[in-house]
Design a protein that fits this description.
Blueprint (H helix, E strand, L loop, with lengths): L2 E5 L4 H12 L3 E5 L3 H6 L6 H10 L3 E4 L6 H11 L3 E6 L6 H6 L1 H22 L4 E7 L12 E3 L4 E3 L5 H4 L13 H19 L4 E7 L1 E3 L11 H11 L3 E4 L6 E6 H13 L5 E5 L6 E3 H12 L5 E4 L9 E2 L4 H6 L9 H19 L1
Parallel strand pairs: 1-2, 1-4, 2-3, 4-5, 5-8, 8-12, 9-11, 10-14, 11-15
Antiparallel strand pairs: 6-7, 11-13
């Protein structure tokens, strides 16, 4: 049976990947040590998701290995060797603000951990496909220098600009911009994944994600904007919007649609590819627009405050242009729009709140 290694397997994208690959008949080995609890506290722990996966999936094994542990990673890869046909690397420290608290932890998880996994793949499973979940934060704050127009509920790009119709493509520079330390560590990992494809010939893909979301997200204030926002609307917890009048725009892609893109790449892989991947013009919203939808769906009103302090390196407007991926894999398409996506997050959050109570 073909083996897939999935890092961050109890998280949002990792768990969706585990379920998808298991359904395709693969033996799935997850790597996850619940670092999300360390980053963001008990409320953000992914243990509930780990327990659910182990109970439901007979061909899934969870290994509590830290991706910074070179010996531990190598032992695991050596165990499965050339049976490994796919590595999906989703584990990360994902927050701007948290990275500034512990820069060494952030960099060693995001950059060193990725290097260890790439090298283990090259050594033990060189024919495997390696998929890395990068981030739009590799572009730093360059998107903030686009000609932006303020409307009643959002910021938008000036209609005559090339990015107005389809969003930001992979040609945007990652240089000469403010990334945040998180963005810098992800740049390092992003370039490493490309280089192992271009230099060593590994079949690697780097997916620069927009707002990746879905009902399995353990949202926290410092990461997981839609999931945490919905949690606050459902529970009545006060919410803080950081900067830009709440009109900052994110494109939102359901975890299933992203993982389905992974699968398409796996079926016909390339070496050293880079793709912007998010909700594009198909699925995007501002903070204020997301609040309005969540309030309508729940019947609750959110208590929120507007802070003038935006997060360092954060984007005012970001919408992914996914046409490069679609040109390479024309059979891939979205299955979730914004309303359906938010509806699932609301339903799942309401169920989890009931269980906790």
């Amino acid at each position: 049976m073909s083996v897939a290694i999935v890092t961050g397997s109890s998280g949002l994208i990792g768990s969706e990947t585990v379920k998808f690959l298991h359904a395709q008949g693969m033996q799935v080995v997850g790597i996850d040590n619940d670092m999300r609890r360390y980053f963001f506290g008990a409320d953000a722990s992914t243990q509930w998701n780990a327990d659910r996966l182990r109970a439901a999936l007979p061909n899934f094994t969870l290994e509590s290995v830290d991706i910074r542990d070179e010996d531990g990673v190598n032992r695991l890869f050596a165990r499965y060797g050339k049976d490994i046909s796919l590595v999906v690397h989703t584990a990360a420290q994902p927050s701007h603000d948290w990275a500034a608290r512990e820069p060494l932890t952030d960099f060693t998880v995001n950059a060193n951990g990725t290097l260890i996994l790439l090298e283990a793949t090259r050594k033990y499973a060189p024919e495997a496909v390696f998929i890395f979940t990068s981030t739009n934060k590799v572009y730093g704050d360059t998107p903030n220098h686009l000609p932006l127009i303020e409307t009643a509920t959002r910021w938008e790009v000036e209609p005559s600009h090339p990015y107005a119709e389809h969003g930001i493509d992979e040609q945007m520079s990652i240089d000469q911009s403010k990334h945040s330390l998180f963005g810098a560590s992800k740049v390092a990992a992003d370039i490493l994944a490309q280089e192992y494809g271009r230099y060593f010939g590994l079949r690697t893909a780097t997916f620069r994600g927009g707002c990746l979301t879905g009902p399995a997200h353990s949202g926290a204030e410092l990461h997981g904007f839609l999931a945490y926002l919905v949690k606050c609307v459902v529970t009545g917890k006060a919410y803080t919007i950081f900067g830009y009048k709440g009109k900052q725009v994110r494109d939102n892609i359901h975890a299933f649609d992203l993982v389905n893109a992974f699968w398409h790449f796996f079926q016909n892989p390339r070496a050293g590819e880079v793709y912007n991947m998010g909700g594009s013009r198909h699925s995007n919203c501002s903070m204020l627009e997301a609040i309005a939808i969540a309030e309508r769906m729940t019947g609750n009103e959110l208590t929120y405050t507007l802070s003038d302090d935006n997060r360092a390196g954060d984007h005012i407007w970001y919408v992914s242009d996914v046409r490069k991926f679609q040109s390479h894999y024309p059979d891939w398409s979205y299955t979730y729009g914004l309303e359906r996506l938010l509806g699932e997050i609301v339903e799942a959050t309401q169920e989890r709140v009931k269980v906790i109570k």
